[in-house]
Every structure is written in C-alpha cells, then in structure tokens.
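Work Package 3 (structural annotation) set out to generate three-dimensional models for the target panel prioritized at the project kickoff. During this period the team completed the workflow that converts sequence records into discrete structure tokens, so that structures can be stored uniformly alongside our sequence database. As a representative example, we reproduce one entry of 101 residues exactly as it appears in the project archive.
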Amino acid sequence: MWLDSLRSQAKTWRSVQCWGVPRLIAAFEADSKEGSGADAVYYVITQRSAGVGLRQLVADGLRPTEEQVISVGVGLLRALEGLNQLRPPITHGAIALVQGI
C-alpha cells in the first residue's frame, strides 16, 4: 500500500542528517476533507532551503559559467554520496534536474 511506503520513507528521512538534504520537520496523516475516513491524506513537511532557487536565478537572467554548473553538480553529488554512506544506504531512484532546482 502506498501509505505504508510513505510512512516508511518518512521514518527513514527523519533519521537522515546529511548536507544538502532538507530536514524532515513533520510527517502525519489525516482524514480527507470529506471525513469518510476511507481516504487518508499524508502530509510531509520539510525544511526550506535558504536562498534563491536555481530556477528563479535563471529566470532572472543568470547565465552560469561552466565552473558554476560544475559546482552545482558537485554539490548534488555530495548530497547523494552522503546518503549512500549511511547504513543501510539510501538511494534515490529518479533524479531529475527539477529536483536540484
């Protein structure tokens, strides 16, 4: 069941303290607005990263140099490396550019 998977992921995420990975503040479920109890809604609240996102910077006209692009890529790889060094390791199955933005 997808809800069990979310609970498990939230439990794992709560224990992660890794550079570049937002901290999990809270995860909880509640009944749907209809109140039937049949459809639970699961909320995940994470720490917001400081600063302006890459998407906004590019929209504002940023044209990064090759060195800046490499720096962002290295930062993402460091975060993934930190997750992989946990025991058991945590892997991400679908990295997309938008997740780094």
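The CA atoms of residues 88 and 95 lie 20 Å apart.
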